[in-house]
Amino acid sequence: MTEFDVRIESLKPMRLAAALGFGTSPEDEAWGKLLDWIWKQGLVAEIGQMRWFGFNCPGPDIGSPNYGYE
């Protein structure tokens, strides 16, 4: 068994924007939606200050190349 350096941290309150992609490359789809939204909102100058999180949702099924990413 391996040991991990695990910590629990509290995050300050933040605003959130989320997008879901589904298919064989859902990461590209989800990130594309977010980046389009960021441009339309005029938030491009703030990209360097943003925190980015992502996860599979739903995960891949056996026998299917499709899965979700949010």
Largest sheet at a glance? Answer: 2 strands, antiparallel
Number of helices: 1
Helix content: 10-25%
Number of strands: 2
Strand order of the largest sheet: 1-2
Mean pLDDT across residues? 91
Instruction: Please report which band the strand proportion falls in: under 5%, 5-15%, 15-25%, 25-35%, 35-45% or over 45%.
Output: 5-15%
End-to-end Cα distance, whole Å, is 31 Å
Radius of gyration: 16 Å
Poorly predicted sequence stretches spanning 5 or more consecutive residues: none
| Gross morphology | flat
Instruction: Please provide the ordered H/E string of secondary-structure elements.
Output: EHE
- The helix-and-strand class reads alpha+beta
Features:
70 residues; flat; two-stranded antiparallel ribbon; alpha+beta
Summarize the structure.
This protein is 23% helix and 9% strand. It contains 1 helix and 2 strands; from the N terminus they run βαβ. The mean pLDDT is 91.
Task: Give structural notes.
There is one protein chain. The protein has a two-stranded antiparallel sheet. It is built from one helix and two strands. With 70 residues, it is α+β, with helices and mostly antiparallel strands. The mean pLDDT is 91. It is 23% helix and 9% strand. The longest helix is centred in the middle third of the chain and has 16 residues, at 26-41.
